[in-house]
């Protein structure tokens, strides 16, 4: 058991849910410290009935801290994580900054919990769109070895934080009122629109968000031979990322087998009855911790072994806060059994 | 030149744009007749400055008609088209009912204009999501022979007619007002939501909308060997269908070559500059007749020759009204040159 837990970025879209998860999952700690940038310092937040004043994220803040759960922008993470580790804390980091560092395990507890053993003070939690995808891919990979993934995403505005949701709401209301919406968080007005760009160009016309689906997937699944063709699109939905996924496997796989594999896998709820109009949708997954899978069907275009499916998950929960708290739980178990 | 043109379903979402297109494209006719179901009979509509009273769609209505452009539900088309043809008219039909009939040409003028020569009184216009896709696929197929297509759609609510758009608007306003939205046109509330079902189950877990992307594509491109894996999703956008498309070709194809082929093809506008944040979006394509293509990139997952791209088009225009009027223009040319 850790004595002092620090949550960094507690007032953000993900940080708020981290605090909720500490309550709902009854995460054990003796003392909770909340750290944020100057803007939030002095604010009071109530967690598990205790009112806590937010302190400044600065060198020295981690001297008495054992474990950190951090949800901050990449540049903030790049700066504070080294001194947090230096000061003796173990950091579960949700930013993208450390994910591909070879010395940093990138963990989805349902997929590669064992990788946590190698950590050197930093454990990274993957990007939201990657996390839900690898949870769904893992049982198929284990049974039939995935060779290739083609994925098109339908990503919610909360992936860009609270500001993203506010912008969707105001942008939408403007359109309904016959006015011209503006944009600041997103490249263009998102109300009743789609934006086929998340992040900036990273590799051969693919965006940074798209390449996370390539690189992070390989690292988590521990298989650099998995080929991924990603398309990442922002859609006018507040919470819940959706993904249209096609997988090609080495061994043959049937729809029935895929459905059974999904159904038996941890962290997956199968909602799959087209005739009964049952399939995952953002509105049903908002506030849930699982990854939801449906529309499971044979790839009718392939020469080989292929399965197509539809996958939805709350991007603030399994895509971020829930996965980070699960990593912290894993750390506790390893401390407990050490 | 045809003497009498009839437009069937003139008060619907697509029918209204057919009438607009007759004006903008200065489609020649001596007399225009508007036909609709009982509900609309007697309404007056102004086209090219002439006020026309809507008449009842019933046997006998086509006795004096040469050419028909019809936008009606499938069941209405199934009933009236036979007697329209019997009464001597040639029908350009936008419903799904006749599309796969072997005696009915299914035409996208940029792709297979020559097929119109075989018509026996009925010419079908494809489904909205198919039309924009085949316009984009045609130049690639001609140059490099397409073997396989993986497509995920992001389809606007106007695909379900005016009622679809009204439902999106009311559903969205309800959510903004903190109330619970209802649904009638769609299976579930569509405001800030996605619905991964368009149509009903048709084949092995694929919906009717999805299978149109398989069957219609093969028929229009005249190649039954083209394999398609489709996923069709309704999104909270009023106008403009978007598609994330991956093609695999027989011959090698480079990004530069694909961009050139798209750029030289009729009916396509290339908007492709990720660094400059230029790509097709529904809000920019609303009210335009072209098919817009961007995010053109190499398939980084394939062993073979693959190109991924993003394609948007106004589903009421090229996806429906514009294509039908273009077919009518083709018919006129063939009459003129006969």
From TrEMBL, chains A, B:
The keyword Glycoprotein does not apply. NADP(+) binds at residues 11-14, 39-40, 158-159, 315. Pathway: Amino-acid biosynthesis; L-threonine biosynthesis; L-threonine from L-aspartate: step 2/5; Amino-acid biosynthesis; L-lysine biosynthesis via DAP pathway; (S)-tetrahydrodipicolinate from L-aspartate: step 2/4; Amino-acid biosynthesis; L-methionine biosynthesis via de novo pathway; L-homoserine from L-aspartate: step 2/3. It comes from the Bacteria. GO terms for molecular function: aspartate-semialdehyde dehydrogenase activity. Gene3D superfamilies: Dihydrodipicolinate Reductase, domain 2 (3.30.360.10), NAD(P)-binding Rossmann-like Domain (3.40.50.720). It catalyses: L-aspartate 4-semialdehyde + phosphate + NADP(+) = 4-phospho-L-aspartate + NADPH + H(+). Substrate binds at residues 155, 234. The keyword Oxidoreductase applies. SMART domains: Semialdhyde_dh. CDD domains: ASADH_C_bac_euk_like (cd18131), VcASADH2_like_N (cd02316). Keywords: Amino-acid biosynthesis, Diaminopimelate biosynthesis, Lysine biosynthesis, Methionine biosynthesis, NADP, Oxidoreductase, Threonine biosynthesis. Its EC number is 1.2.1.11. Residues 4-119 form the Semialdehyde dehydrogenase NAD-binding domain. Phosphate binds at residue 99. The active site is at 128 (acyl-thioester intermediate), 241 (proton acceptor). Belongs to the aspartate-semialdehyde dehydrogenase family. Catalyzes the NADPH-dependent formation of L-aspartate-semialdehyde (L-ASA) by the reductive dephosphorylation of L-aspartyl-4-phosphate. Homodimer. This is Aspartate-semialdehyde dehydrogenase. It comes from Roseiconus lacunae.
């Amino acid at each position: 058991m850790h004595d002092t837990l620090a949550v960094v970025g507690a007032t953000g879209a993900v940080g708020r849910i981290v605090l909720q998860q500490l309550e709902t999952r009854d995460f054990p700690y003796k003392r909770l410290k909340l750290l944020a940038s100057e803007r939030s310092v002095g604010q009071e937040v109530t967690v598990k009935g205790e009112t806590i004043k937010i302190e400044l994220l600065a060198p020295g803040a981690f001297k008495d801290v054992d474990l950190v759960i951090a949800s901050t922008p990449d540049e903030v993470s790049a700066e504070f994580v080294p001194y947090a580790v230096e000061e003796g804390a173990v950091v579960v980091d949700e930013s993208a900054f450390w994910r591909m560092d070879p010395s940093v395990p990138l963990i989805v507890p349902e997929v590669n919990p064992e990788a946590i053993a190698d950590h050197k003070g930093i454990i990274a939690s993957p990007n939201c769109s990657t996390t839900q995808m690898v949870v769904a891919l893992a049982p198929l990979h284990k049974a039939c070895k995935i060779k290739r993934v083609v994925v098109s995403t339908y990503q919610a505005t909360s992936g860009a934080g609270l500001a993203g949701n506010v912008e969707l709401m105001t942008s939408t209301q403007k359109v309904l009122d016959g006015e011209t919406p503006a944009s600041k968080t997103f490249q263009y007005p998102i109300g009743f629109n789609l934006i086929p760009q998340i992040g900036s160009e990273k590799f051969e016309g693919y965006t940074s968000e798209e390449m996370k689906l390539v690189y992070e997937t390989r690292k988590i699944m521990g298989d650099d031979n998995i080929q991924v063709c990603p398309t990442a699109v922002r859609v006018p939905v507040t919470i819940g990322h959706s993904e249209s996924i096609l997988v090609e496997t080495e061994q043959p796989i049937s729809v029935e087998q895929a459905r059974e594999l999904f159904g038996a896998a941890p962290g997956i709820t199968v909602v799959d009855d087209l005739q009964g109009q049952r399939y995952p949708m953002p509105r049903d997954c908002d506030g849930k911790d699982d990854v939801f899978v449906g529309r499971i069907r044979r790839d009718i275009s392939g020469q080989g072994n292929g399965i197509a499916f539809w996958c939805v998950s709350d991007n603030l929960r399994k895509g971020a806060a829930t996965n980070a708290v699960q990593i912290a739980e894993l750390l506790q178990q390893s401390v407990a059994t050490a």
